[in-house]
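Collaboration report, partner site 2.

Our partner group contributed sequences for two proteins of shared interest, and the home lab folded both. The records are reproduced in the order in which they were received, starting with the first partner submission.
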Amino acid sequence: MRSTLRRAVVHGGLFLVTAATTTAAGAAWAGVDPFASWTDFARGVPFSAALLAILLCHELGHYLFCLRHGVDATLPYFLPAPPFVVPWGTFGAFIRVGGRFPDRRALFDMGAAGPWAGFVVALGVMILGLELSHVDAAAPQSSVLVFGDSLLTGFLTRAVLGAEPDTVFIHPVGVAGWFGLLVTSLNLLPAGQLDGGHVLYAALGRRTPVISGAIAAGLAILGFRLWPGWLLWAAILAGMTRLGHPQTVDDGVPIGVGRLVAAALTLVMLVITFVPEPIKILP
């Protein structure tokens, strides 16, 4: 009983602190000082609610499929971050999984469920955020932070607003949706213990290092040409590829045609949410 209460305090406490830091970050995205007044602080609530909903649904997707396959897992741990250091106010969330998965089918279900659940919510948040955004084709009078576009966000911007992405001043809710889709694509990179690594291993078994190594090399090229942050991700993927992926209890059980099709659709989700140059500052 005492252990259960302690876990509830930890999970609940981290969630509440993360709610506070993401609300402060949201107020900053709304253009106000979150510490000037409670009214200004509250202006960050839409951003916080949208972002936490995406992260929560992502982690619950993992958690529920762990329960379905009899794998021990914790409730989500939310990670707060200083809002003026990390502009989203959070380092994300995770669950801890105990033990090995019984087979590759269970591994696939757990690995794919999180990104799909988070993607659906992030898609809705992104559309709502674009509806709240405004278009201004005039040249800005100061340097501006520009979010890069994936195939999906570029399409949504043109479909919802009928405007080119570089003319849109995005609402904080849209920022949360954009960040949620970016997190989805990062989690789907096919290596190691990332969600994409689980999906790749479930689909191909131990024949995955060549694919993961090629993705790491591709990110390194993007790092030199577009966004230096990809160099860090290339190093992370290379390290994960070297460590390999833990086996399931029975790797010999096939995942079936349905899950192979779902794996291909998950790859499509990675392609349409991937942002080659996530952030840049234009004078």
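Second partner submission, folded after the first:
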Amino acid sequence: MNKCAALALSVCLGVPAVQAADSPKWLTDARARESRLIAPRQFQSRDSWFRAKVPAKVVGVIERVQDSYSIELDHGSGASIYCEVVPHGIDMADMVRVSAESTLKRAAQLQGKVEERQVQVLDAGVFGNIPYLSISWMYTVHTDNGLRVGAFKQISMNKGNVGIYCAHVDLGYIKTFEAVTRALAMTLETTDGLRAPYYQEIATVSMGATKSGVMITTLERDADGDTVATQKMSMLLPAAANNVISQDSVSKEWIDPDAGMINALHIVGQNGELTTDLKLNPRDGQWIVEGQLQGKAVSAKLDQGSNPGTWVAQALALRKLLATPAAVGGEHSIPMWASANPGKLTVGKTKVLARIDGTHYHALSKIGTLSADVTLDSTSGMASAAEIRMGPQKMKLERVYVSGAF
């Protein structure tokens, strides 16, 4: 069980739950409760590996156990906020899913059978340059005293290469929870230092009207001086009103100074299960694809003479196109390595349709069977917004943070 979830429930679920038959006003009042937060206090782990400052009282000594640090934060409500700091980062979506299941399982052990559970709010965004996923749940349990109601809130974040997860078991203190967890993330520092890419973009991902994911794009140098172009996406996909599916993916391209491909990988996990694990490497003058896709082994060679493009090369070419007087109506094509068809290159096409303002253009982008309406930023050559058609559904990406240049 996730340590944070276990700690939260062992303490907080001892408080009598709310009667489900109580009036809506009572429920509204319960949710409206907030703490009067204290002035931020600095604290650190016992080994001094990390420190931060929060408007709450830190309970006990913070020690590293296995791969994380557990923190109890007393904000004055009687139900503490419990957090974990994970030195090597977390799969943001799966951390939420696994911890929610642990929380509900513990609720059943302490209170009685969980009769119903429901997602109340699902959200995604940034605290500064720190992406987060958050979700709140309500559930009912059958006890000897009748049907009762409980609730808990969760948030997961990655600050550079450090993961942060927090939970709070209570109907209320919504703004308090956000303020305390935001402070923890924004002020957290480590003795290792937090890896800073020379270019970073963060976009929220929406399915319908619900922000349910984040996409993080970074450029940084590795030990050999090569550029590592990384795109990570974490999403919580509602499976029904009472459940979510987690999906975490990472794509990495190692590229040379001319934005040419050196090698690449693509990894996808869904509900904690590895569904895609593919690598692209040059060998004896040919590109080799190895790994597994949807449980099946993949071993293939790209066609002789194939030259897989990179998203950095695509962005640089689009930036050049958008700087010309004849940008509108112009089109750019590039062969890309896509995991949907890993044994062949897939052509990515972008056609500029109209100028929006001094730095943005409306364009149509296609790769394989996917097409998207995009807003191109002429400064970077990247999309600042996109609407991707996926059958009857639409996925929307909206850039909410950008720093650096390339």
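Feedback sent to the partner group on the second submission included the following. The first helix runs from residue 3 to 12. The chain has two domains: 3-190, 199-404.
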